[in-house]
Every structure is written in C-alpha cells, then in structure tokens.
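Key result, reporting period 2: structure in, sequence out.
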C-alpha cells in the first residue's frame, strides 16, 4: 500500500502550490480585490485565468484532448487541495463548482455535438454554467424522486421537444451562467422517472425569481430561485436516454462531492497556517502561545483531523479511479471533511483571539463559508443514512481492503 504520489502528479501539485503563493495569496490582502459578494473581482479573475492557462495549469480534471491536463482523481485531490489554500484559488483554474462537475459529467456522457456546443465553451472559460436540481418543499432536495418540475414531450413537424414547468431554488451560479443542466420529471417511475436536459440562458420560458441572500461569501452568480413556465428544449439537447436522470446524477455527483472535500482540505490547511504563524510569534505570560500546552492540544487535534480527512479523500479517489462509484467512501469523506473544515477554522479563530474574529485575516470569511459544508451536495445526516444502509447490507464486508 503506497501513499506516495506519482512523480508527475507531485510535480503538478508543486506547480499549483507555487502559483497560488506567488499570484493569488497577495490579492487576498487587498480589499479592492473583492466583488460585492466577497469573491474575486471579475476583471482580476480574467487576468489570473489567463496566467493559469499560460502556465499549463488549466482544467487539470479534464482529458488532454479537450484542453485539460488529464489528471486522475488522485491527482485532482492533491492539486485541488493546493488550489484552495487560497479562498480565490479553484475558480482561477476552472476547478470551482458548479462548472467543475458540469464539465466532468458532460465530458463523460455528452454526445459529440453536445460537447462541441455546450461543454467546450465552459472548458475554454468563455461561459459559466449551472446545474438545476434542487426544489422548494415539497419538491426534491436530497431525495430526487420527489422532483415536481416536469418535462412534457411534444411532437411537431420540426422535431420533438420538451416543455419544462416548475420551480427550482438554491441554484448555484445561476446569476452568471449561460449554459444550464436541468433535471426534470418525465414519468412516475421511481427509478427511471427523471431526465437531464441542456438549455441556454437566452431561451424564453424561464426566469430568475431572485438571488437568495445567504450567510456566507458567495460563488459568482450566487444561489438563485428559478421559475419555468414553458421553457422549450429540443430533444437533441436531452442528455443520455429518457429516464436516465438518476444515473446522470450518480455520474456527476460522486466525483463532484469529493472535489468539495479536496478543496475544503486546502482551506483547512490555510486556516491552521494562519493560526501557527500567530501563536508562533505572539508572546504572553512569559512565553510564546505555541509553547502553551492548551494551545498545543488545539493545534495537534486539528492537524490530526485534517490528515484523517486527507486519507479518506484519497481512499475514495483511488476507488473512483478504479471505476467504482465509491458511494460509501465518498459519503464518509463528505461527512468527515465538512466537520474538519469547520473545526480547523474555528480552532484558528480561537487561537488568533479577537484578530481571528476580525476581517484582518480571511478566517471569518472561511468560518461563514465552512458552515455550508455540512449541507451542500447532501446533508451530513443523509450521508450517514447511506453508510447505515451499506453497513446493514454488507455487515463485516463494510470494512475491506479491496
């Protein structure tokens, strides 16, 4: 059992680490670098994206033949962690949600025509994208079989199309997206009742009701509520077969959930470095804070929890690379790393005292951001249910060395 990164992946990791340190971290210190929603200003984003492309660090998650770097999932894990050492990092390399997951799934299941029209503009950084799944109650949240938004088939002389009606909310990035992936109900079959579609922002029959205010800093485009009142989608923009919506979500969300964890580990490490820098120099009661036993307990525990999260992420990544859905392993990583991020940032704030609670460091930004980790892409409680079901089915085989 070898935990050493292959040489090529290690070289990529170091390049991402160096780029973040040299080009991105300095921007965080300037309040003028932020937009009104506490993310990187768009003109700066364009500049940094151009530098990332020139450095050969663009889209490491995608195949080389479509403009990516062709890294396996374990390579993504190592590099995404380095990217999100900065709060601005992932979006600069085109590795931020939801574009990240949307590109990955379209590269796997899209037709050649769909890849050319819908995928490549996202890969090239010309447009942003969004995935439209979650609905207000009583519609679907963590249970997609509860979906109420419908796609009704219509047959015309000019070709078949689908009429979309319904309501969605907390749709990340919708405010700036041009390309949308939509999940809608096409039958009452509990397993084959959903279908995936593609549509463009300029098509009539839908609108953004509102950008939902949230507690934390926001991704570009925010989290929006959408209404569909007759959006027409040509059948050529259907993704996969009719009824393959659940399969589509499995393909997309498995790796996408794990990429959240990869990025969160980078933020957790950054928080601990901010803490270490402070306690390593702050003098109190005749010595450095870092020499106090109570401080060492906090540092040691948080550092250990981060390493546990890293091992779980790499275990899941290796299984995904082997062709497994790794549902159990991804759920374990998602639960643990969500808690790890919050714990690391909370520890760093505590050790920095009032400084940590201020905006003199990015810790308060991270703290508000971290609270969403236990909710996005399935609440922790849902993932624990997945694990319980797996355990009751597998019993002693739940723990294996395969």
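The corresponding designed sequence is given below.
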């Amino acid at each position: 059992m070898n935990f050493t990164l292959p040489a090529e992946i290690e070289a990529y990791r170091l390049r991402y680490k160096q780029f973040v340190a040299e080009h991105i971290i300095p921007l965080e210190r300037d309040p003028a670098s932020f937009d009104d929603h506490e993310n990187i200003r768009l003109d700066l984003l364009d500049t940094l994206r151009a530098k990332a492309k020139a450095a050969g660090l663009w889209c490491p998650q995608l195949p080389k033949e479509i403009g990516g770097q062709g890294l396996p999932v374990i390579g993504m894990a190592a590099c995404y962690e380095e990217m999100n050492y900065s709060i601005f990092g992932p979006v600069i390399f085109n590795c931020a949600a939801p574009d990240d997951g949307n590109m990955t799934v379209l590269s796997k299941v899209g037709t050649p025509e769909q890849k050319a029209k819908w995928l490549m503009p996202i890969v090239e950084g010309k447009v942003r994208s969004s995935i439209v799944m979650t609905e207000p109650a009583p519609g679907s949240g963590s249970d997609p079989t509860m979906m109420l938004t419908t796609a009704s088939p219509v047959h015309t002389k000019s070709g078949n199309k689908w009429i979309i009606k319904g309501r969605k909310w907390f749709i990340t990035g919708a405010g700036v997206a041009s390309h949308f992936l939509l999940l809608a109900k096409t039958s009452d079959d509990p397993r084959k009742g959903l279908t995936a579609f593609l549509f463009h922002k300029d098509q009539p029959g839908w609108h953004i009701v509102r950008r939902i205010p949230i507690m934390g800093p926001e991704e570009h485009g925010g989290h929006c509520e959408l209404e569909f009142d007759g959006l027409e989608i040509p059948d050529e923009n259907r993704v996969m077969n009719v009824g393959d919506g659940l399969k589509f979500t499995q393909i997309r969300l498995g790796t996408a959930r794990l990429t959240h964890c990869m990025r969160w580990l980078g933020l957790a490490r950054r928080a601990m470095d901010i803490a270490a820098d402070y306690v390593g120099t702050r003098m109190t009661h005749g010595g450095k804070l870092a020499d106090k036993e109570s401080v060492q307990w906090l540092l040691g525990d948080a550092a250990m929890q981060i390493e546990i999260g890293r091992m779980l992420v790499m275990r899941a990544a290796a299984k995904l690379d082997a062709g497994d859905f790794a549902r159990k392993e991804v759920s374990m990583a998602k639960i643990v790393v969500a808690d790890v991020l919050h714990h690391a940032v909370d520890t760093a704030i505590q050790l920095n005292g009032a400084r940590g609670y201020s905006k003199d460091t990015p810790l308060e930004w991270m703290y508000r951001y971290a609270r969403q980790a236990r909710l996005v892409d399935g609440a922790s409680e849902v993932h624990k249910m997945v694990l319980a079901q797996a355990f009751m089915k597998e019993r002693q085989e739940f723990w294996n060395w395969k």
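The CA atoms of residues 161 and 236 lie 8 Å apart. Strands lie at 129-132, 150-156, 159-172, 179-185, 194-200, 206-211, 223-234, 238-239, 283-284, 287-288. This case is discussed further under Risks and Mitigation.
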